[in-house]
Predict the 3D structure of the following.
Amino acid sequence: MIIDIIAPGYGSKKEDIAAAERVVKKLGFIPRIPKDIFKAHPLHSHEDDYRLEHLIKALTAKDSQAIWCFKGGYGTAKLIPMLAKLKKPAKPKMLIGFSDITALHLFLNQKWGWPTLHAPVLWQLIHGKVDASSAEKVKAFLLGKHAPKFALKPMNEAAKNYSGSGKIIGGNLALLQTSIGTMWQAKPKGKFLFIEEVDEHAYRVDRMLNHLKQAGLFTEVKGVLLGDFTYKTLPDEVKKIDALLKEGAVDFPAPVFRLAGIGHGDINDPLVLGAKADIRKNMLTL
């Protein structure tokens, strides 16, 4: 299986290119990386035109089955207006990534109807920033040997004894906020909205969630799945965030669940976005 590797957001050191190739080969796949994937740039892995070119080549390649993002960071959302001009390819690709890659998840899920995989970026695997088990689950999923299943923790009365099904969309909270007012804005009505975040103070998380609320993103959602909200250097902020999430969930009309192990933590297991999910007896099955 050929996997195209792209860097639509942040860049990395050139020596990480060979390391990424080794990681993908060790998982049993064939990596394909643009020779000019990185260039010195103050914000991104490369100029916008090059990042867009790499992305389009990966999306339209007929011989690859998946696209794995090198890193998150910042910059992916800038490519969406240009990507929107592209005709939808006939062959769907499984995009792999998270964080800043949320912009691509939303576009591919909502505009092209492609399912995508919220999962570790390659930079994390290279530098041991995430448990190897998460990478093995990505491998098993791509090979059709793993159906993701997660334990859920009900956070309000509506979530207790809930049974239902629907698509999941979402991702990083900051990117969900960024999407508001754009052509790729998250539209979770009738769907489960997944949210995770990293290194944000509690007041900023509260402000972003309030923005989503006032913008109508929580209106008529099927449910909310709250992933990991992490801040390793400021654990007290995590406690504050947990408290505000619990408080906000109490009177929420739709079911709200905590979904551990999805986000910027040491465990970041693959979660399929844009595809049907079933919730039964506090278990999520994809």
User: Anything to note?
Assistant: The chain has nine helices and 14 strands. Residues 27 and 69 are 15 Å apart (CA to CA).
